[in-house]
Amino acid sequence: MPRARNTVASRRRRKRVLNMAKGYWGGRSKIYTVAKHAVEKGLQYAYRDRRKRKQQFRRLWIVRINAAARLNGTTYSRLMGALRKAQVELDRKVLADLALNEPLAFTRVVQTANL
Model pTM? Predict the structure, then answer.
């Protein structure tokens, strides 16, 4: 009696990998084994970079806050210390948004910090 292979499941598994590899260059999108490696590596990068994105946004916010703080005659470091001392609980995301879109409001926040 011939050995039974679960063709349905293996075809579905291969199809899922090849669908994930759509748009990859050359054999990476057509040859199952190559596509599987490319997809696995891509998923590793995606996992890593979802965490990296948070670091990148924080760095961007700090750059924006520092630039706006310097326009108001202080530095990022001094401003954050003064805000903490004045118990102003605005996070970096909000401060960066104020610095970019509402410069007058940001100036008021700097003045509130009592520098």
Answer: 0.78
